[in-house]
From TrEMBL:
Reactions mediated catalytically: N(6)-[(R)-dihydrolipoyl]-L-lysyl-[protein] + succinyl-CoA = N(6)-[(R)-S(8)-succinyldihydrolipoyl]-L-lysyl-[protein] + CoA
Pathway named in the protein's UniProt entry: Amino-acid degradation; L-lysine degradation via saccharopine pathway; glutaryl-CoA from L-lysine: step 6/6
Tree of life domain: Bacteria
Positions of the Peripheral subunit-binding (PSBD) domain: 205-242
Phylogenetic lineage: Bacteria, Pseudomonadati, Pseudomonadota, Alphaproteobacteria, Rhodobacterales
Entry-linked SUPFAM superfamilies: CoA-dependent acyltransferases, Peripheral subunit-binding domain of 2-oxo acid dehydrogenase complex, Single hybrid motif
Protein known as: Dihydrolipoyllysine-residue succinyltransferase component of 2-oxoglutarate dehydrogenase complex
Enzymatic class: transferase
Protein family membership: Belongs to the 2-oxoacid dehydrogenase family.
The UniProt record lists the keyword Acyltransferase: yes
Organism: Donghicola mangrovi
């Protein structure tokens, strides 16, 4: 018998709530197959099977609170499973139809992400699907998530239409698999609306994190409008209700946003109104928050790229032959920034209340434009990596960013960001901070310009650099010093090798 226990939940987190069981007693499980999902007030934690066998017992049911290392369930080896398995499986065998129902569940969306929007269904009710064939696509405020079919059969039920919001671990649809799948489909299709019709008559179990948030805010369920399935209250709903209560308590409520100016009828007929994606809404909110919450200032300089370009041209073929990746400019800028951050650590810090948190590491965010919007994959411990390691990671994460395949974990924890508007032809711009970071470097287009060098006018490949910083923590002297150190390192790349 193998025990399934609560894993480590993170620093200072001592308990969690069992949110969803993906298996039931009697089900066969494989090693590392997902058994259940736990929810804390900070993250969602998946619990994989520690061994293959049969799930014989679930000790902690959905909705129960469990501590670290608490017993969740028991798994027996295949030989031991013969006796208990039929006991749990007997009720499922009652229907006359030979088809087995397989639930299509919302996959794990990433750390701190509790819900997503159904973007596109690639199949409709009654369609035959193959195992692992793509059923639908979900959109969070960071990434797009594809949902494959967990089994072959017929899609008999779609619970959430395109444009609706679903929660992590929730049920999206049902697939009838087995010999009776085709016969089950017509009967199941008309019943697809039944759960919605009956939803008002049953009790709704609100999200555990929402219950805790309501207790902390002093709110009751009657004061919160749930946006989850069947009116389930989510943590975000509690935050919205608390904000509404606070706003109502103010003597002078904040003015509403100015409405759009009237549009002539002939112009309106030629306009197209498209709802902002969750990613675009998040980008808009975060950028505006950065302007509102930080004392943002930008300082500029320019760098002669001759030294970097000559070094790159001399070694790019050997570099690619040895490391299997092209030598670009981003590794030089990443290394130059890491070098400058050591001298000016406040640019690599953040404000937490009345404290300044200095980072003794560099997790470098590299802003990347994608068809869905701007994302910032993070190169962790960039200060400890070689040019080749940095180029490989930028190349790999950049490709997955464009394909919408980045995980939430890969876009979190950055301590400084580099944004390269030069790839789009930008000559000069002021980048906006990526909160809670205190600095972001803007790269721009390399352009030949006449420069005075040793009393002579010569043509040099020049680039404008811009450092936007939070003036609450970074003084002008520190910002200018940082930018000068980046300039010096790029104009003489040998300084990076000598740590000068």
């Amino acid at each position: 018998m193998t025990e399934v226990r609560v894993p480590t939940l993170g620093e200072s987190v001592t308990e969690a709530t069992v949110a969803t069981w993906f298996k039931k007693p009697g089900d066969r499980v494989e090693a590392d197959e997902m058994l259940c999902e736990l929810e804390t007030d900070k993250v969602t934690v998946e619990v994989p099977a520690p061994a293959a066998g049969v799930l014989t017992e679930i000790v902690a049911a959905e909705g129960e609170t469990v501590g670290v290392d608490a017993l969740l369930a028991n798994i027996s080896a295949s030989g031991e499973a013969a006796a208990p398995a039929p006991k749990a499986a007997a009720p499922a065998a009652a229907p006359a139809a030979a088809a087995a129902s397989v639930d299509v569940m919302v996959p794990t969306l990433g750390e701190s992400v509790t819900e997503a929007t159904v973007s596109t269904w690639f199949k409709k009710v009654g369609d035959t699907v193959a195992q692992d064939e793509m059923l639908c696509e979900l959109e969070t405020d960071k990434v797009s998530v594809e949902v494959p079919a967990p089994a072959a059969g017929v899609l008999t039920e779609i619970l959430f239409a395109e444009g609706t919001t679903v929660e992590a671990g929730g049920k999206l649809g049902v697939i009838a698999s087995g010999e009776g799948a085709a016969a089950a489909a017509p009967a199941a299709a008309p019943a697809a609306a039944a759960p919605a019709a009956a939803s008002g008559a049953k009790d709704v179990e609100h999200a555990p994190a929402a219950k805790k948030a309501m207790a902390e805010a002093g709110l009751t369920a009657a004061q919160v409008q749930g946006t989850g399935r069947d009116g389930r209250i989510m943590k975000e709903d509690v935050a919205a209700a608390a904000a509404a209560v606070a706003a109502a308590a103010k003597a002078a409520p904040a003015p509403a946003a100015a409405p759009r100016a009237p549009v002539a009828a002939d112009d309106a007929s030629r306009e197209e109104r498209v709802k902002m994606t969750r990613l675009r809404q998040t980008i808009a909110r975060r950028l505006k928050d950065a302007q509102n919450n930080a004392a943002m200032l930008t300082t500029y300089n320019e760098v002669d790229m001759t030294g970097v370009m000559e070094l790159r041209n001399e070694y790019k073929d050997l570099f690619e032959k040895k490391h299997g990746v092209r030598l670009g400019f981003m590794s030089f800028f990443t290394k130059a920034c890491c070098h400058a951050l050591k001298e000016v650590p406040e640019v690599n810090a953040e404000i937490d209340g009345t404290d300044i948190v200095y980072k003794n590491y560099v997790h470098m965010g590299i802003a990347a434009g994608t068809p869905q919007g701007l994302v910032v994959p993070v190169i962790r411990d960039a200060d400890q990596k070689s040019f080749a390691e940095i180029e490989k990671e930028i190349n790999e994460k950049g490709k997955r960013a464009r394909d919408g395949k980045l995980s939430m974990a890969e876009m979190q924890g950055g301590s400084f960001t580099i944004s390269n508007g030069g790839v789009y032809g930008s000559l000069m711009s002021s980048p906006i901070l990526n909160p809670p970071q205190s600095g972001i470097l803007g790269m721009h287009k390399i352009q030949d310009r006449p420069m005075v060098v040793n009393g002579q006018i010569v043509i040099r490949p020049m680039m404008y650099l811009a450092l936007s910083y939070d003036h609450r923590i970074v003084d002008g002297k520190g910002a200018v010093t940082f930018l000068v150190r980046v300039k010096e390192a790029l104009e003489d790349p040998r300084r990076l090798l000598m740590d000068l």
